[in-house]
Design goal:
about 130 residues, two-stranded antiparallel ribbon, mainly beta, globular, six-stranded antiparallel beta barrel, 9 strands, homodimer, Elongation Factor Tu (Ef-tu), domain 3
Chain lengths: ~130, ~130
């Protein structure tokens, strides 16, 4: 068993999974990432304009689901969850590519985030460029 | 506190972090992903040739690190971990884009994986195409 402590929480106008966009680029709103001040040193080199990968924990997901109909569409076949982005899966980690819009201490505003208000944040990673840029 | 049960483990010739490639596309070997048979139904729609995102847990990472010199290079400035892909970070989740080479029951062979032998597997996700393909 692995134990994870969230490093922050999503603050968003989205509160209802049923009506939230299924992906960030499908009309999701801006959101604030409220980081634990204890990890602020890790945020020091982020800047507005950067694209980052945000990892979250879908705390309202069902973890006993192994097959779903993609996008909840009744006319699509049952599909193994590891071939879908369904939040319902054994370890419901969300992966979101977002752009940093604004930074205010340990709070970071990003665009196009479909995660619900209160979603725990696990990690932030840079988007990898080509080998020569690393 | 969030509790995660790994869904499998990496079987790889790589055993030493000091000499392992830093990213998959820097000469990392093929590896087998050995999934727990209990999640096999979730793997049903994966097929050779597909690119997937593999999420792992860097179980040998240091979790109290908030700044590193990228790629361990002494001549690079200390950088906040959330702007790096360092395995040393508060929640050391690895994110790897790999291609499925072969499937044998709950074992899946992939290419270019820099994770060490024995690394726990947390999740597998499809690479998202354009909105029209979802």
């Amino acid at each position: 068993m692995i134990e994870i402590s969230p490093i922050g929480v999503v603050s968003s106008p989205l509160t209802d999974a049923a009506t939230a966009p299924k992906q960030g680029d499908e009309g999701a709103p801006d959101a604030w990432l409220e980081f634990d001040p204890a990890v602020a040193a890790g945020l020091a080199d982020l800047a507005p304009g950067q694209d980052v990968l945000l990892l979250t924990w879908f705390d309202r997901a069902a973890r006993d689901v192994l097959a779903v109909r993609p996008r909840g569409a009744a006319d699509r076949p049952l599909t193994g969850v590891f071939s879908t982005r369904s939040p319902d899966r054994p370890n419901p980690i969300g992966l979101h590519r977002v752009t940093v819009l604004e930074i205010s201490g340990p709070r970071i505003k990003v665009n196009d985030l479909e995660a619900l208000d209160g979603t725990p944040i696990l990690d932030v990673k840079p988007v990898l460029g080509g080998v020569a840029e690393r």
